[in-house]
Write a structure and sequence with these properties.
Number of domains of chain B: 2
Largest sheet of chain A: 2 strands, antiparallel
Oligomer: heterodimer
Structural class of chain A: mainly alpha
Strand order of the largest sheet of chain A: 1-2
CATH architecture of the largest domain in chain B: 3-Layer(aba) Sandwich
Number of strands of chain B: 14
Number of domains of chain A: 2
Order of helices and strands of chain A: HHHHHHHHHHHHHHHHHEEHHHH
Strand order of the largest sheet of chain B: 6-7-8-3-9-10
Shape of chain B: elongated
Structural class of chain B: alpha/beta
Largest interface: A-B, 22 and 35 residues
Strand content of chain B: 25-35%
Distance between the termini of chain A: 26 Å
Strand content of chain A: under 5%
Number of helices of chain B: 11
Radius of gyration of chain A: 30 Å
CATH class of the largest domain in chain B: Alpha Beta
CATH superfamily of the largest domain in chain B: P-loop containing nucleotide triphosphate hydrolases
Low-confidence stretches of chain A: 245-249
Mean pLDDT of chain B: 87
Distance between the termini of chain B: 36 Å
Helix content of chain A: over 70%
Largest sheet of chain B: 6 strands, mixed
Helix content of chain B: 25-40%
Order of helices and strands of chain B: EEEHEEHEHHHEHEHEEHEHEEHEH
Chain lengths: ~475, ~325
Amino acid sequence: MAKFIALVRNENLKLRRRKTIWVMLVLLLVFSLGYTAIIGGLTGMFDTLFSDGNMPFEEFCDEQIEGCKGWLANAEDPEDAESARIDLLFYKTLKEIGSDWDDWRYTTGIVHEYAKQATAGSSEAADELKAMIDANDYKAYYRRQIAENERMYAAVSGAADAVNEGLRYCLEHDIEPSSENWKYNTAMRMGGFSFRLVMHRTAGDASSSQYESDLNDYSVAKYRLEHNVRVNPASSFQRNLLNFGGEYADTNSRFWDTARSSVSLVSVVGLFGIIIAAGMVAAEFGKGTVKFLLIAPASRPKILLAKYCSLLLNMAMFLFALFFANLLFAVLFCGGGDLFLPILSVSGGVVRKSSPILRLLGLYLLDGVGTVATATLAFAVSSLLRNSGAAVGVSMLVQFGGNLINTILSMARADWGRYLIFANINLSNIQSGSSYFPHQTVGAAMFVVLLHMAVFLLVAFDAFDRKEV
Amino acid sequence: MNNEMKTPVLQIRHLDKTLGNRRILKDVSFETYSGEVFGFLGPNGAGKTTTIKIAVGLLMLDEGDIRIAGYDLKRQFEQAMALVGGIVENPEFYGYLSGYENLKLYARVHEGVTEERIREVVHLVGLDLRIGEKVSKYSLGMRQRLGVAQAILHRPRLLVLDEPTNGLDPAGTKALRDIIRRLAHEEGISVLVSSHLMSEMEMMCDRVGIITDGVLQSVKSIEEMVSATAPDSVTYLLHVNDALLAKTLIGAVPEDCLRVADDRTLEVTVPAEGAEETLADVNASLVKNGVRLYTVVHRENRRLEDVFIELTKGGDQIG
């Protein structure tokens, strides 16, 4: 055992005295910084730049009032003129009551509703609304909305209750309808998805994937309210960039989205792992140092195993360096306030709560398995052919060409493709449900990957043991 | 040298090796003993390096049996290899590491090699001042010295050196020869040296095994080898003005012992016993009969080189 540790230390010394590995480490940190800065920092900045929230609300109202006056003066038909009058009253009222950008009376549209009713001449409704506005009584507004929904959806059984679920929750828990209030937003999401679920059931497609996705969203929203798990949404610009879905998507927090998406940099670790592995055996033969290596009181399998362990250790070092760098930069660019904000994940309507740091670590380890598998392949080819170019080529094909093969096989309905390594190395995708073949599970994929690795290692050890130097 | 008194260190028995469809080694058997330098001689491609590579575990043997200090190389590989040090072909090191780091790599996998031992060995091969430099900056001679340092670092019982004087200057060769002889004769190491430089072998080795075409021709001590071929006759080259005339005038020597090399050179072979007296008679009769005798040259005795060339049927055979 002492001798084996000595062999591993030797391999580590050989790797660390070379500049390559340090260049790789620095590149990894630079990528991490760049990626996190763009996803976390820049997108947040863009949102601030392009939102009109910077303008004082009163100034905004004055501008709109002037615009509406011009519009009214040039209106061509009565309908157009009425629209202009509604808007004019809308902005005048907003200014009068001293509303602001995130005032519920502006964001819910109650003032607009009042302006519409008043302009149309239905003074009873207009007076009712004005009373709510002046009294700042959002509860009354909730009640009015609920009654209105009950009238509107009376035809479909359960629809009114579903759509009112969020409103009732807000009414009961005294939640102010501000766009800045995550509880209000989440309650609205809950109502929206609840309504969609009723619609699915009415249409008889309660087994569709859309139903499941809506059920998941509904469950997450409900869980948040019941367990008081705050949401701190990513900027809309960032959501679009990361393709995380529209404004209804539940994204936990800007910090989390940034940290989570930076897991994709693990593929860079995979690339570096391939390059290191490809050189480990081939370079010894190429430079003739293999004789130095083998004239030692250690069996060849022991020597090769030491090399493999050194490879794994160094890849683990890369993975942890990337993990900590991404975490650090995500805190730097998105703030550390959400570092411990629990992360919700959902499957089949069952919500699980986890710590973002542990969850992130889990994602790194899941994706790490795939990178170790491709590096193992490079190691095996290096040992078999003693050619690092071939080893890099073959492994890169698996890592970066694998998805093309998956696409072709799944399109050709060749279901056996699920047993190939290509369909199984991306474990985090399989976990999040976006696998190429239906019903793939992380456990099964891990088994397929480990089986492949076992074959690669057998080839590597057999070739190295037989080789005459 | 009394081999019965020494213990065998390397025992090679009935070694056979086929690479591709060429049989490289055919039933090679020999032993080396502690305290001796064993020279392994043969032309290029005769199987020297193949034998050495098998002995240090770089190649696998097809047939036969190798023991190092009693440990079977096949079944007790690690115990056997712990007692072997060696350089095979050129000493290859990690160029981006320093000489010291290269030795450190090697020291780690052997038990009981201390920092002090490393310094001692570095001093022995005279690399003290350059040991911290990267090996890529070393000359071939310096690498060769580092190779020797690495090979003896763990005090092996068997030291295997494949063409160790390659690339060394005369002073380096002499230093290496002294180190090798000292290691064997004072520290009792068994040294196996391969070479095609016969004169080198003659100065360094106690016993010599000659291999050609994968067959071990003979194993003899240097003394045996030279005396076995010691001359019973001596040949002189006589430079004269007329070789043909001279040949007819010599009566002291039978005619079949005279040979005209060219018209001014006569070869005279006389029995080793009393050779000088016989030659004096020959000279006297020539001078008396008016032949002008310019010089007389004593042709070199047969040395190891001649034995080698004779055994290997005239020099290098490649292929």
